[in-house]
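Q: Please design a sequence for this.
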C-alpha cells in the first residue's frame, strides 16, 4: 500500500506535509506507510488518506493492476486558473461565482472535483508557518466546509487563512499565523461580507 499511497499523492502534486494537512494524519505516519514500515495501519487512517486524495478505499488498498484499470474513474487533471487575491476579491459582490480564467496569469493542473476551483497565489496577508509567499492555495468554492477544515476567510475587514470550527449560532476561526481566534455570529456573516472558502491543497513553490 505504501507504493500506491505515494503514487496517488505524487499524482496530485502533494508533499507528505500537504497530504497530512488535508487528511489529519500525521506526516510521520504517512512517511512510515510509504516506506512500508507500518504494516497494519488503522482502517480510520486509510479512510482519511483515501478521502484526502479523492479516491476510493479500494483504489488505495488493491493491487496496482486494479488501480490502473480504475484510474480513469477519478478523472483527468484539469488546468485551473491561478489568480491574485485582489483579482478574486473584486468579484466578491457578484451573486454568481465568476469565471476567473480571464484574470489568470497562468494555469496549474489539479484533480479537484469542484467545477469552480482555482489556485490563489499566497501574498503577505496569507502567509503563516504553513504557507510561504508564492505558494498556491487550491480554493474550492463549491465544496462543503466541514468542522476543522483549512479555509480562506474573506471579510470587509480582513483576509486570512485558518481552521474553521462550528458552534451553535457561531463560527470560530483560528488563523494559521499566531493571532487571536475570530468569533463570528452566523447572523453577522452577510453584514460583514464574510466568505468562507475551502482550501483543498497548499501547493508549495520552491
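A: Design:
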Amino acid at each position: 500500500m505504501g507504493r500506491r499511497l505515494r503514487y496517488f499523492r505524487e499524482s496530485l502534486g502533494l508533499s507528505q506535509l500537504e497530504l497530512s494537512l488535508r487528511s489529519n494524519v500525521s506526516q510521520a505516519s504517512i512517511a512510515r506507510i510509504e516506506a512500508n514500515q507500518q504494516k497494519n495501519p488503522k482502517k480510520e487512517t486509510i479512510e482519511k488518506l483515501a478521502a484526502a486524495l479523492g479516491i476510493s478505499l479500494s483504489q488505495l488498498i488493491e493491487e496496482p493492476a486494479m488501480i490502473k484499470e480504475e484510474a480513469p474513474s477519478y478523472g483527468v487533471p484539469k488546468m485551473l486558473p491561478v489568480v491574485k487575491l485582489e483579482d478574486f476579491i473584486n468579484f466578491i459582490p457578484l451573486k454568481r461565482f465568476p469565471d476567473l480564467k480571464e484574470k489568470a496569469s497562468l494555469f496549474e493542473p489539479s484533480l479537484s472535483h469542484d467545477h469552480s476551483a482555482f489556485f490563489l497565489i499566497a501574498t503577505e496577508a496569507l502567509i503563516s508557518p504553513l504557507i510561504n509567499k508564492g505558494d498556491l492555495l487550491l480554493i474550492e468554492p463549491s465544496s462543503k466546509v466541514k468542522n476543522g477544515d483549512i479555509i480562506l476567510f474573506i471579510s470587509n475587514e480582513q483576509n486570512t487563512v485558518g481552521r474553521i470550527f462550528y458552534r451553535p449560532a457561531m463560527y470560530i476561526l483560528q488563523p494559521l499565523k499566531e493571532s487571536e481566534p475570530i468569533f463570528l455570529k452566523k447572523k453577522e456573516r452577510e453584514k460583514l461580507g464574510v466568505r468562507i472558502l475551502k482550501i483543498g491543497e497548499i501547493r508549495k513553490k520552491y
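Q: Thanks. Anything notable?
A: The chain has seven helices and nine strands. The beta strands are 78-83, 106-110, 118-121, 136-140, 150-154, 159-167, 170-175, 182-185, 195-203.
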